[in-house]
Write a structure and sequence with these properties.
With about 400 residues, the chain is an alpha+beta fold. A hairpin with a 2-residue loop joins strand 2 and strand 3. The radius of gyration is 22 Å and the shape is globular. About 40% of the residues lie in helices and about 15% in strands. The strands form two sheets. A four-stranded mixed sheet has the order 1-4-5-8. A four-stranded antiparallel sheet has the order 2-3-7-6, with no helix packed on it.
């Protein structure tokens, strides 16, 4: 069967709009109809929200829907599901798992979170100690996860746990889908420097996960997790934004609207960062074009590195540009937002929130190693624990 072209996708989108006018169709009903028409993510398989079309044609559908004021699925609220869980379920899930999880995930009926990092396994994720022990048709999970965005609103979580402590750390991990409403799952807020608690710590005590919610083979969790992590870095550092989108936008706007704040030094720094932000944006476009031909690779780590550095430098420049105003902070009220907002609120918030950009989604130090080894082909750092059983590692 020939994949649909741009003209065919426009025709199908107009048929969707005619059958389900956005002005008279409920938001959730419209999104379900869009998914069932294969117009959710056109590069996904037919029957799973797609039409086996090239990824590059998704903007054709999006433009038609935007012109008709059709509702979107609030991608910021369900970003972990869209950017990390969905491609992992698609790549490693059974047909039953794909049918069960992808539609409510994309529509936004079910929010997802990511149970990867632990207090003793952040940068060295493969050293994780959360245990999953087989008990009949279930796995019993005990452990602690940390820095979990959206855990307080999530129904499902992608979870990696150690199922075999007698083999080296990368080989004894399995990958599961965890129901966040199950007994034994406890979510506690972690208040950040911004005042918010968008992150959480999650305690797992005797949580029973059916083997039917395992992704990939037992012991292959690290391989499955690489799909999640590569997609995570692309979703953080390679998202599509317009020129002067993201962190550079508010600074450029302030510069134009408030000439009394300008100095020669700040002008030079702003020009440099504006150019770097535009280069990063165009590099992101190139990365998305590469994705059309295959899966995300280590290049996404480079994009995420650039994203973190630029956000921190630009937000620092904004605080300096505003002078005394930059020292103000509008609201430090404890709140638990339902989505991550890298650029929201005022300059003080942007400055403080950007400090987390070099930690979340892989620390900059780890990503530098990935770029060095997998992109530049430099020799790997010596590792003396690759062949040592996890249980014998010093901790």
């Amino acid at each position: 069967m020939t994949a649909p072209d741009a003209a065919e996708l426009r025709r199908r989108t107009r048929e969707l709009l005619a059958a389900h006018p956005p002005s008279t169709t409920g938001r959730t009903d419209f999104l379900k109809a869009r998914f069932d028409a294969g117009l959710a993510w056109v590069h996904y398989p037919t029957g799973l929200g797609g039409l086996d079309a090239p990824r590059s044609l998704q903007p054709v559908v999006d433009a038609e829907l935007a012109a008709a004021n059709a509702p979107d699925n609030d991608p910021r609220r369900i970003g972990i599901g869209l950017g990390m869980a969905a491609p992992t379920v698609l790549g490693f899930g059974t047909e039953e798992q794909k049918q069960r999880f992808l539609r409510p995930l994309w529509v936004g009926e079910e929010v997802w979170c990511q149970l990867f990092s632990e207090p003793g396994a952040g940068s060295d994720l493969a050293a994780l100690g959360t245990r999953a022990v087989r008990d009949g048709e279930d796995w019993v999970v005990d452990g602690q996860k940390v820095w979990t965005s959206s855990a307080h609103v999530a129904r499902w979580a992608i979870l990696i746990a150690r199922t075999d402590p007698d083999v080296p750390k990368h080989r004894g991990i399995s990958y599961f889908i965890c129901d966040m409403t199950d007994p034994g799952v406890e979510v506690r807020p972690l208040r950040q420097i911004t005042g918010e608690a968008e992150f959480n710590e999650v305690f797992l005590t005797g949580v029973r996960i059916p083997d039917s919610r395992r992704l990939g083979a037992v012991g292959d969790g690290w391989k499955v997790a690489q799909t999640t992590l590569m997609n995570e870095r692309v979703s953080i550092g390679g998202s599509r934004i317009p020129r002067e989108g993201g962190m550079i936008g508010p600074v450029a706007r302030t510069w134009r609207e408030r000439p009394e704040l300008r100095t020669h030094d700040l002008h030079q720094r702003l020009l440099t960062l504006w150019v770097e932000a535009e280069v990063a944006r165009l590099a992101g476009e190139r990365l998305r074009q590469q994705l059309v031909a295959g899966q995300p690779g280590p290049e996404g780590s480079g994009m995420k590195l650039a994203f973190a550095r630029l956000n921190q430098e630009i937000s620092g420049l904004e605080v300096e540009l505003l002078g005394d105003e930059g020292l103000l902070y509008s609201d430090w009220t404890m709140r638990r937002p339902d989505h991550v907002d890298f650029t929201g609120r005022d300059a003080g918030y942007r400055y403080l929130r950007s400090k987390g950009n070099s930690i979340e989604g892989g620390t900059s130090e780890v990503l530098l190693n990935i770029v060095a080894e997998r992109v530049l082909g430099l020799p790997a750092e010596p590792r003396n624990d690759k062949d040592v059983a996890w249980k014998d590692l010093s901790r």
